[in-house]
Amino acid sequence: MEGHLRAVHRTIVVVDVEGFGDRRRTNRHQVAVRQGLYRALREAFTGSGIAWADCDRADRGDGVFILVPPEVPKGLFAEPLPLALVTALQAHNSTYPVQEWIRLRMAVHAGEVTYDEHGVTAAAVNLAFRLVEAPALKAALTGSAGVLAVIASSWFFDEVIAHCEAGVSAAYRRAEVRVKETAAVGWIALPDDPDPAGAVDGAPGDSSGLTQIGAEAGQAPPLVPVGVRYSLPPDAAAFTGRDGELDRITAAVVDEAAAGGVVAIHAIGGMPGVGKTALAVHAAHLLRPRFADRQLFIDLHAHTPGHSPVPAGAALAGLLAAAGVDARYLPDDLDGRASLWRDRMAGQRALLVLDNAASSGQVAPLLPGGEGCLVLVTSRRHLGDLPGSTVPLLLETLPTDEAQQMFLRLAPGAAASPVEPVAELVRLAGCLPLAISLLARVYARHPSWTLGDLAAETRAGMLTLAAENTSVAAAFGVSYRYLAPGLQRFFRRLGLHPGTAVDAYAAAALAGVSLEQAARRLDALHGEGLLTEAGYRRYGMHDLIRRYARDRAAAGPAAGRGQALERLLDYYQHTAALAEARLARQTRASPAPALAAPAAAPNLRDSARALAWARAERANLLACLDHASQTGQHARVVALTAAVAALLRQDGPWTDAITRHATAATAARHLGDQPGQANALTNLGDVRRLTGDYPGAAQALEEALGVYCDLGDRLGQANALNQLGIVRWATGDYPGATQALDEALGIFRGLGDRRGQAIALVHLGVVRLVTGDYPGAAQALAEALAISRDLGDRLGQANALTNLGIVRSQTGDYPDAAQALAEALGISRDLGDRRGQAIALTHLGIVRRLTGDYPGAAPALAEALAISRDLGDRRSEANALTELGPCGG
């Protein structure tokens, strides 16, 4: 590190890799971990607006010590750096074998730093090193399902984090730091697994931070990060009783394990609010150590108000995404998906919670086929058609003594009260766990009340309720009635949301309040037990509470409801359009008219943030799109579908994207919106091509081209011609492909659209390659590469380099071919583009085979084959298998 003449106040970051010296990591694995660590740090710092090259760094073997230039805003280290680092680490872990996965502890401090002849000297630096070694931080990461645990010094928390936007400081929990001679206070956060139970001193249980799998009918599920191993909700802090049921589940698992396998299915049934989900999740947490490979939770939405049950095919799409299969390459049919799921689970010890199931037919395709798995299913209905080995468990209401224990655990202030008032309260609650928990929270919120007061309030509410829902609805009524008026209104507005999860930004738009107010009110309703955590700073509702909220909202003025929904739809449409602009490969022709910016919206300043937001909000965006379709909002359908086009293309399933774009094209025709119609047709043609429907793709693209020509929209023409050229190439019409791509390239050049030029040049290079015009192909691809490098478009660089490597291989220039393909592979690894990796590896293997390097060819082709199988990309899998044969693979 360079010397300094005086002390400078600098941000100090220290990171350590968990288990770097684990005996299962060979030297090769450790090298890959170190490379991945530096790549992740570089990407996260750069993506957060921190110049990585300007930071002073010292390697620590199993970590890195970083000094940040003093002019860099310290708030970047509270947000967005931790989230950017999580994204980079998850991308690494989804690409590399388990021995090369990275989980990090990160300490953040700031203080005066000086240098002498021995290097850095400062008490602030010593404290940062002590923080990263804190036992509380190590325990937090060990007990976390995430990839990152952050500890901030007390100074950094007070001076920086506490002054960030609402919600950031709430993610941190106080912890004691005692390392060697140091005794201090630190503040710990788990950005992608906030506050698992017991992870941080005094921290309550919280969400896993991973998106739960599930979707409504006809939709793809929310995308889960590839290779998810854990998505269980937090265990109930006050879980009470159910010893007999737990014994039955655990005994069956132990017995099966002793016999050499675990193939156990438990169907947990019972009335709403009886605690089916709580039992399943509690049992899953107890048994988690026995199922180390994967523990997944899925809400199948059988009784979620406003949502149809998740089709088995959509649920399988989510499960396969969790198992590492790229959703774009999923089999179209249910049997194909079920077979692929059973194949992925073969040999794994996995635990699966299927919550809120509608029927045996919905559940049966989701069952793993081999030994080593436990499946817990909850449903209000009897699932009589599941396999004969299924163990049915019918939950009744809690016995009176256990119901009283539960109330006292949730409201410890009532422990000194006589038994009789507690017994009356649980009787009024019908001994139903959901109702008991709500009444306990009401009591805890009103310290001046006696148990008799609470009982009187509950009885008063019951007079107006239907008999079959008396206990739980009365509990809702008491909870709702004593909310502040503003919080009551906020609760009613949340009931209008078409989706099942909400964050502060969407809630602010829906309720017409500030972001800070929305965040506080979400936290308040969560504290009252009326909301559940569905992820980091994201909230959902129990089905019954959602129905209650909707009923309360329906009783209010219709105009207010309509205005609230319009604000919410405007928010999603506006923000999705911003994300689309970051994610789309080409500039959109005739974009939809811009909406006024909402009062608060997330910062989507780069493609990584845009993709993370779009994936987190996928289910909500599609739910809003369905609402717009059902209510005849044709302009909204056109604009919102266009705003999710890049997400649908990137994450699939493409069959769903086809339906969406076809619907948007029809809506645009109905409106007479020619630009919207042409854009929808272009997107439709693109996705049809990806599924191999070349006639359908050509038809849509030619129709789009005609509309663009009528409008005089040159950019639209170029986009349609570019896509049409690819379709003609795929069907062997090389002259037609060349003509379309040459015309597209000329238009892009005339418009000065350099990214469009690069994309057209790559496609033109591919056509020239297959027609034997190797000099022309090399020239086009080299020009595309130069443009992509000028633009900083790394995906464009990888595409150009891969095809340039193929051209050089075809012309016998094997050294340059290997160099280009290796560079393309490196970029694809950096970007987490697994399909790009598979293609580069396949052709790199071919080059090595052609040069006699069979020992080098076989591993490259084997890795390409493994990635293709994981993605479900049958074409790439076939290519890798074909080339692996001559190598003895």
Outline of the structure:
It contains 36 helices and 15 strands. A hairpin with a 3-residue loop joins β2 and β3.
Structure, described:
By secondary structure, the protein is of the alpha/beta class. Helices cover 55% and strands 10% of the residues. It has 36 helices and 15 strands. Strands 1, 2, 3, 4, 5, 6, 7 and 8 form an eight-stranded mixed beta sheet that branches. Strand 11 (350-355), helix 10 (360-363) and strand 12 form a beta-alpha-beta unit. Helix 25 (654-671) packs antiparallel against helix 26 (674-690) and helix 26 runs parallel beside helix 28. The longest helix is centred in the middle third of the chain and has 26 residues, at 558-583. The two termini are 48 Å apart.
What attributes characterize this protein structure?
globular; alpha/beta; disordered N terminus; eight-stranded mixed sheet; 889 residues
Helix and strand topology:
Blueprint lengths: L7 E10 L9 H21 L8 E4 L3 E5 L13 H15 L8 E13 L2 E3 L1 H10 L2 H8 L5 E6 H6 L13 E7 L2 E8 L53 H16 L4 E7 L6 H12 L6 E6 L12 H11 L11 H12 L4 E6 L4 H4 L9 E7 L11 E4 L5 H11 L8 H10 L4 H13 L5 H12 L7 H12 L3 H10 L9 H8 L3 H13 L4 E4 L2 E3 L2 H12 L3 H26 L23 H10 L1 H13 L3 H10 L1 H7 L2 H18 L2 H17 L3 H18 L2 H17 L3 H18 L2 H17 L3 H18 L2 H17 L3 H18 L2 H17 L3 H18 L2 H11 L5
Parallel strand pairs: 4-6, 9-12, 9-13, 10-11, 11-12
Antiparallel strand pairs: 1-3, 1-4, 2-3, 4-5, 6-8, 7-8, 14-15
Helix pairs in contact: 1-2, 8-9, 11-12, 11-13, 12-14, 13-15, 14-15, 16-19, 17-18, 17-20, 20-21, 20-23, 22-23, 23-25, 23-26, 24-25, 25-26, 26-27, 26-28, 27-28, 28-29, 28-30, 29-30, 30-31, 30-32, 31-32, 32-33, 32-34, 33-34, 34-35, 34-36, 35-36
